[in-house]
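Note to self: keep these together.
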Amino acid sequence: MVGKTVTQISVGDSASFSKTISESDVYSFAGVTGDMNPVHINVEYAGGTVFGKRIAHGILAIGFISNVLGTQLPGPGSIYVEQNCKFLKPVFIGDTITAIVTVIEKDEDKNRVRLRTYCVNQRKEITLDGEALMMPQKEKKN
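Structure:
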């Protein structure tokens, strides 16, 4: 797999990835990261929160953005330089989340691409919104 170089990328290019969040995803993420916040893993506790039920880890959705950046746009060989985001709505178990990245700026001299990064649920509500700065793979020299 080979990702795109900065010269192969255009402002407006976009890519996405969708996944339905399962209970197993939440427990696996909690196990890998050690984030055992009861709002994610304890039904009784989460029922007493403002959300009324368990929510997925916000960082799990950022992982979907990382998937798109690392496998599609710019793709394999690219390096994550920076990510910022705002969590706007909770993600619940059973929600289908689509991570979308769109190129908003590129700097060929510095080999950098800035992308809008956001996720929407099955109701098309934006659950998180942000930007990433990526360093695409370098042009191969002959």
